[in-house]
Specification:
Elements: H1 3-50, E1 57-61, E2 64-68, H2 70-122
Antiparallel strand pairs: 1-2
Helix pairs in contact: 1-2
């Protein structure tokens, strides 16, 4: 392969690696946000467990508080926590896949760099 071709291929691989890293960073940020939401919902679930089933539960909808059935509130929290856990798992799986892809790009870049250096030595 000619030196110019190697440089073009190297740049292409490097751009793909950077894009991969950028996506991982975004996913990590999303994961942190979901972790926070999961913690908040866990606290709410604990508070609901302490409350008697006859106790009053209110849910904020916009600027007003609406009364909500205790059982319904527990079910909503459970559903929300389940959804968040599924999203966390999806993000973890995607990050794992991207990390594997990132490692392949790094290996490819190392090989291309070695090929380029070998060509420079031959000159």
């Amino acid at each position: 392969m000619a030196a110019e071709e190697l440089q073009k291929k190297f740049q292409t691989e490097l751009d793909a690696l950077k894009q991969c890293q950028k996506e991982i960073n975004q996913l990590v940020g999303n994961r942190q946000q979901l972790d926070g939401q999961l913690n908040e919902n866990s606290i709410v679930k604990e508070e609901l467990a302490l409350l008697k089933s006859s106790g009053e539960v209110y849910k904020m909808v916009g600027p007003i508080l609406l009364r909500q059935d205790h059982t319904e509130a527990k079910e909503n929290i459970d559903k929300r926590m389940s959804y968040i856990k599924n999203e966390l798992q999806r993000i973890d799986d995607r990050v794992h896949t991207l990390e594997e892809t990132q490692e392949k790009y790094r290996e490819s870049l190392t090989k291309l760099q070695q090929q380029y250096q070998a060509q420079q030595i031959k000159k």
